[in-house]
C-alpha cells in the first residue's frame, strides 16, 4: 500500500500537539484525525522531520515510522521541555493504540483484559533465569507463579506433576523450537515431517537444527493429508519420524487429525520410533473446550505441546507455555555451573512478569470461564461467516475453529485499517473474545459498503477463492 501523509504535521512540528477528548476517539464512525490514523506521521513530526509529504509503504520504509532519540539540550532540565515533549509523544501513542485496538480483527490476539491489579509489579525486574524447577541464585523471580501455571496446563493435557517438565516461553515460536529440539535429541537421526500449512517457525527450526525436513500436502480445509503423510514416511522407513501436528493452523485454523497421524505412524511400522510435537499456539487452549473436538492429551503417544499465551489467553506481552515429558528433558539438558541450574530452555533470561499475568487470568476465568469464551467465539465466528455469505462474499469456517477465511478485500487501505492477515486471494478474521457482534457488524457494514464501490464498474470482479477454500465456499462469478 502506498499512502501519503501531509496534513496535521505542521501543527505537530510546531509543538502544537492536538489531543482530542476520549469521547471523540471513541466515536467510531467518524473519520479519525490524522494523528490517530497515522501514528507514523506523529512520529515523523516528533522526530522533527518537517512537514513535507512522506510516502509510507507497508512492510518497508520502517525508518519513516520511528520516534527518534534526541540528545537532551543543556537547559532542558530547567525548562522542563524535554519531559513535556516525551509526555506528549506517549499520550499520542496511547491514543493510537486505543484506536488500533478497536480496529483489530486479523490476528488471533485476545485484547480483552484488565490487569490493573498487576501494575504494582512493574517496578521489579522479574527474571526467571533458567529452569523453573531448579532454584537459581537470582532471587527476584516468579517461579512460584510459573510452576502453578505449568501444573494447570500439565493437568489439562493429562500429565501428572511428577511426569512433566515445562516452562513459560517468550512465545509460541519458542515452544516449537523447543518441542522440535526435544524430538531431535530423542531421535538424533529423525526426519522432521510437517504439513505445508504449518507455521513458518517449524521450518525455521529445521533450518536452525539442520534437520532433514519433509513437507506434507494438506486437504482443502488446511489439515494434514494423512495419505500423503503415509506415502512419505514409507519412503524413509529406516529413519525415525518427528512430526509437527497443528492444533489450529495459522491461516485457516485447521486442526490436524492427531489420532489419524498416530494410526498412520503405527500402521506404517513406526511404533516407538516417532516423536509428535503439537503446535497449539493458536488453538491449544480452545480445543479442550470444544465439545466435538478430538482430545490433545499425553495419554496418547505425543512428546510435547506448546501454546501462545498472548493469543486466546490474552496476555499483554508475548509469551507461551511449553509442556513435555520429564523423561525427555534428561536427553536434552546438560549442567551449567554458572547458574547452578539445569539448562533445558532455549532462552536464558526469561520474562518473569508473563507467568504472573497467566496465573492471574487462569485464576480469574478457570475452566468454566474459558469454556464460555470459546463457545462465544465459535458462535460469533459462525455469525460472521453466515453474514459474509448472505452478502455474496465467499467464506469458509472450519468446524473446530473460529478463524473465518474469505476473499481478500480489494483495497489495501481497508486491509490495513482492520489489520487483516492476507495470503494470496484470501484474508481471515480470527474471532477472539475481544471480537463481539457489534465489532463484527461494524466491520461487515463497512466491507459491504466499500465492496460495492470497488466492483461498481462491472469490469473488475471479486477474486475466485475456490482453490483456497473449495468450490462450495466460493461465491465468485463462476461459482455462485
Ligand atoms: C502464532 C502461531 C505460532 C507462533 O506463535 P508466536 O507466539 O507468534 O511466536 C506458531 N504456530 C501457529 C499455528 C501460530 O498460529
From TrEMBL:
The keyword Lyase applies. The lineage of its organism: Eukaryota, Viridiplantae, Streptophyta, Embryophyta, Tracheophyta. PROSITE patterns: DDC_GAD_HDC_YDC. InterPro entries: Group_II_Decarboxylase, PyrdxlP-dep_de-COase, PyrdxlP-dep_Trfase, PyrdxlP-dep_Trfase_major, PyrdxlP-dep_Trfase_small, Pyridoxal-P_BS. It comes from the Eukaryota. One of its GO terms (molecular function) is carboxy-lyase activity. It comes from Eleusine coracana subsp. coracana. Keywords: Decarboxylase, Lyase, Pyridoxal phosphate. The keyword Lyase applies. The modification N6-(pyridoxal phosphate)lysine is found at residue 311. One of its GO terms (biological process) is carboxylic acid metabolic process. SUPFAM superfamilies: PLP-dependent transferases (SSF53383). Its cofactor is pyridoxal 5'-phosphate. This is Serine decarboxylase. Belongs to the group II decarboxylase family. It catalyses: L-serine + H(+) = ethanolamine + CO2.
Amino acid at each position: 500500500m502506498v499512502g501519503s501523509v501531509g496534513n496535521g504535521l505542521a501543527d505537530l512540528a510546531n509543538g502544537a500537539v492536538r489531543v482530542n477528548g476520549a469521547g471523540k476517539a471513541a466515536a467510531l464512525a467518524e473519520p479519525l484525525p490524522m494523528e490517530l490514523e497515522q501514528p507514523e506521521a506523529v512520529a515523523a513530526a516528533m522526530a522533527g522531520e518537517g512537514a513535507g509529504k512522506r510516502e509510507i509503504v507497508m512492510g518497508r520504509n520502517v525508518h519513516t515510522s520511528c520516534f527518534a532519540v534526541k540528545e537532551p539540550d543543556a537547559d532542558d532540565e530547567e525548562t522542563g521541555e524535554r519531559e513535556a515533549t516525551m509526555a506528549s509523544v506517549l499520550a499520542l501513542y496511547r491514543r493510537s493504540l486505543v484506536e488500533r485496538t478497536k480496529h483489530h480483527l486479523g490476528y488471533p490476539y485476545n485484547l480483552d483484559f484488565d490487569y490493573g491489579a498487576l501494575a504494582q509489579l512493574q517496578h521489579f525486574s522479574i527474571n526467571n533465569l533458567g529452569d523453573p524447577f531448579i532454584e537459581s541464585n537470582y532471587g527476584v523471580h516468579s517461579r512460584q507463579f510459573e510452576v502453578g501455571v505449568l501444573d494447570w496446563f500439565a493437568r489439562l493435557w493429562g500429565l501428572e506433576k511428577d511426569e512433566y517438565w515445562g516452562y513459560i516461553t517468550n512465545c509460541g515460536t519458542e515452544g516449537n523450537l523447543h518441542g522440535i529440539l526435544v524430538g531431535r535429541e530423542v531421535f538424533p537421526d529423525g526426519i522432521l515431517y510437517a504439513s505445508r500449512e504449518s507455521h513458518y517457525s517449524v521450518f525455521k527450526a529445521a533450518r536452525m537444527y539442520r534437520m532433514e525436513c519433509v513437507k506434507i500436502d494438506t486437504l482443502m480445509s488446511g489439515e494434514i493429508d494423512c495419505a500423503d503423510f503415509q506415502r512419505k514416511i514409507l519412503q524413509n522407513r529406516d529413519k525415525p519420524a518427528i512430526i509437527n501436528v497443528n492444533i489450529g493452523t495459522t491461516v485457516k485454523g485447521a486442526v490436524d487429525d492427531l489420532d489419524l497421524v498416530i494410526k498412520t505412524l503405527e500402521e506404517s511400522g513406526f511404533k516407538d520410533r516417532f516423536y509428535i510435537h503439537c503446535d497449539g499456539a493458536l488453538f491449544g487452549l480452545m480445543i479442550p473446550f470444544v465439545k466435538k473436538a478430538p482430545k490433545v492429551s499425553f495419554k496418547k503417544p505425543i512428546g510435547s505441546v506448546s501454546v501462545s499465551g498472548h493469543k486466546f489467553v490474552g496476555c499483554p506481552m508475548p509469551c507461551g507455555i511449553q509442556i513435555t515429558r520429564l523423561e525427555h528433558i534428561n536427553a536434552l539438558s546438560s549442567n551449567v555451573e554458572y547458574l547452578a541450574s539445569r539448562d533445558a530452555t532455549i532462552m536464558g533470561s526469561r520474562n518473569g512478569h508473563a507467568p504472573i499475568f497467566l496465573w492471574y487470568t487462569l485464576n480469574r476465568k478457570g475452566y468454566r470461564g474459558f469454556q464460555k469464551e470459546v463457545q462465544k467465539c465459535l458462535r460469533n465466528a459462525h455469525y460472521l461467516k453466515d453474514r459474509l455469505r448472505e452478502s455474496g462474499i465467499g467464506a469458509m469456517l472450519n468446524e473446530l475453529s473460529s478463524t473465518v477465511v474469505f476473499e481478500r478485500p480489494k483495497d489495501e487501505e481497508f486491509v490495513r485499517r482492520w489489520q487483516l492477515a492476507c495470503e494470496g486471494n484470501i484474508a481471515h478474521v480470527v474471532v477472539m473474545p475481544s471480537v463481539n457482534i457489534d465489532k463484527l457488524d461494524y466491520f461487515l457494514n463497512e466491507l459491504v459498503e466499500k465492496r460495492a464501490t470497488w466492483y461498481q464498474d462491472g469490469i473488475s470482479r471479486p477474486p475466485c477463492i475456490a482453490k483456497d477454500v473449495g468450490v462450495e465456499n466460493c461465491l465468485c462469478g463462476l461459482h455462485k
